[in-house]
Design brief:
InterPro entries: MoaB/Mog-like_dom_sf (IPR036425), MoaB/Mog_dom (IPR001453), MoeA-like (IPR038987), MoeA_C_domain_IV (IPR005111), MoeA_C_domain_IV_sf (IPR036688), MoeA_linker/N (IPR005110), MoeA_linker/N_sf (IPR036135). Its EC number is 2.10.1.1. By secondary structure, this protein is of the alpha+beta class. The chain is 13% helix and 24% strand. β28 and β29 form a beta hairpin. The two termini are 28 Å apart. Bound molecules: ligand LQZAQKY5 and molybdate ion. Molybdate ion binds at residues 1-2, 12-13, 344-348, 452, 454, 457, 518.
Length: 560
Amino acid sequence: MEEAAPGDDGVAGPPSGPAAGCAGGCGNGRAAAEEPRRRPRPGAGDEEHGGAASRPYDLGRPVFHRADTGWSGARHIALTAARRLDAVRVPLGAEALGAALAQGLAALTDLPPFDSSAMDGWALAGPGPWRLTGQVLAGQEPGARLADRHAVRVATGAELPAGATAVLRNEHGAVELRPDGEWLRVAAPHPAPRPGQEVRRRGQECRAGEALLPAGVTVTPAVLGLAAASGYDDLAVVARPRVELLVLGDELLAEGQPGGGRVRDALGPMLPPWLRALGADVVAVRTLPDDAEALRAAISDAVATGGADLVVTTGGTASGPRDHVHGALARLGARLRVDGVTVRPGHPMLLAEFPCGPYGTPCPEDPEHSGGVEPTGGRPPRQHTDAYTDAYTHPDTEPGAGPDPDTAGPGPGTGTGTGGESASGTGFDLAGAGSGSGSGLPPRRSHFVGLPGNPLAAVAGVLTLVAPLLRTLGGHPAPASYSAPLTEDIGGHPTDTRLVPVVFDARAAARPLRHTGSAMLRGLAAADGMAVVPPGGAKAGEEVGVLDIGMPGAAVGNTW
Ligand SMILES: Nc1nc2c(c(=O)[nH]1)N[C@H]1C(S)=C(S)[C@@H](COP(=O)(O)OP(=O)(O)OC[C@H]3O[C@@H](n4cnc5c(N)ncnc54)[C@H](O)[C@@H]3O)O[C@H]1N2
Ligand code: MOO
């Protein structure tokens, strides 16, 4: 790797500019003079878009030529390389959590479903005093109509009897025992209840059939609760992309202390939860030796037998004697879509697609690629729902021509009807609408991302290639993108974008962290996000794009 100079933990790649020696952050940031605001901005990073420059590796032996893609262009290719997976119906619960709604959520019932009491107290009819005639608890039928000047004791949530005009809460009333029974009156100094007071009216939150949420919304715990409240037992969501992770490296230890040339595997523990947070179903994590045939067989197995929508490898992307990713992809007939990105760290990341899709299904639309991956059988197909409302327009399929991935995700639009079972009964919609070239959508197939082995470089690959790809597969719209002013200069690479871990200070300005070399995770572990630093660097006060790292920032970050 292009290692940072001793003492400089920040720059992977030739530094430039006055702050080059401080590129990873030199000491504490200084707050910007003016009140900075974190605000959405249309695109994070605006360097070359999809440009390619042929650049040989200088290993002393010509191995291959990468055609580096610009950082924004690479993200756009990843966003448009796949098409959204089909809809599946899943019970309300963990399976739905984090998936995108395949259909808008419309209320199946009025909410509240009936007039009910908002307080523990008495439901009453007309002006007081009121004769007490009984009680209704939550969950009980309300019983007979309430006559004028009568009241019943009610619990919060109890359905109000017909005729009730208001509820008097416990602490505002007093009950007197008279010869003819119990009587309720308002206790001074409280005023008499107004009509409708403390009553939750039927339908005041929504009416049956009313649209509550659009398709594409991520199912959060709150969405689960709303769906349950409004009558749902299950939800139609976009299937979670199945991801198989292959961690490569003879030198990796799964436990204990590193030494003797061996290091702990940092990516095996880090990436599966990261992938899950991005909406993936991580179906397998395997560690492999640096062996060409083992890698080829494992990838083939993941695609053909495992039914992975996406195979992610770590390590082996460069051109060392034990780097076999390119060779394995070539043997499997994979098509390289991105082979090197002008970003630091993460430069050797790559994106490819296989000639056939999950479950070993051949790709009839790609006869020239047939036979690459061994179709050795398959998992049971997903249960797809036929109740499918396609509320999305798929992003442009032409790489390099479309909008920024952060603002161009699937959004509301005219339906394209890509759901449904395939004719072959595999649950894999190759032949259906949307899978062929005539539909204008990319065909359904398995994808591949090769992440570099250096841990921070691997994270750069997740943010650049994996996140946009999973977003499209899982039907998630683009999250809001942000920019923030920098608290200090960040030195840049002369030609490449840099991704630098930052924390937001109290004014939401981005302070670059230290220990951000490509082999380091110390900066990232304290970070709120990754600043997108254009070639040449950025000055203190300058706004730069900030990539979300997918989960709430570490609490220590701002004081570190
Ligand atoms: N001659 C050149 N060599 C390298 C170049 C180059 O342009 N010319 N690029 C460098 C860059 S940039 C990167 S990034 C790395 C990418 O290397 P690989 O993807 O082939 O990864 P490995 O060689 O297998 O490992 C690199 C490094 O990362 C450590 N590693 C790998 N996996 C893990 C893991 N799971 N947990 C922790 N650490 C891991 C590994 O031990 C190595 O130190 O290539 C440069 N080389
Ligand atoms: O600069 Mo590499 O792409 O060490 O991560």
